[in-house]
Amino acid sequence: MWIEVMVMTLEQAGEFVANHGLAIFLVVGAFLVLVYGLWKPPSWIHGPFESWISKKLEAIERETRAQEMIAESTKAISQTAEEIREAIRAQDRDLE
Question: HEC states along the chain?
């Protein structure tokens, strides 16, 4: 019994990928999604990822608080400036 082995040249391999690239991409992507969905990663993979996300969320919360403080400070400064302008106008009226 003779078994022929098909040898593919680099040009033929490139042509195959060019013709079937999207299908290959979709099959590999679906496989990865399925594996990730069914497989719970070990803690040495999951732990650093969770800590990285929690650090990013904490940084976002700190940035939000800082932006709120800046907005409140700006509002207070504007209010103080308006009060000073009103006081100057009142003095000008008193002088006239």
Answer: CCCCCCCCCHHHHHHHHHHHHHHHHHHHHHHHHHHHHHCCCCHHHHHHHHHHHHHHHHHHHHHHHHHHHHHHHHHHHHHHHHHHHHHHHHHHHHHC
Place of tokens 């990013």: 56
Render pLDDT for 61-84 as a digit per residue (tens, 0 to 9).
999 999 999 999 999 999 999 999
pLDDT per residue as tens digits for the range 2-29? 667 677 888 888 888 889 989 999 999 9
Q: How far is CA 10 from CA 13, 14, 36, 85, in A?
A: 5, 6, 32, 80
Give the Å distances, CA to CA, from 82 to 39, 89, 93: 62, 10, 16
Domain boundaries, the chain: 10-38+63-95
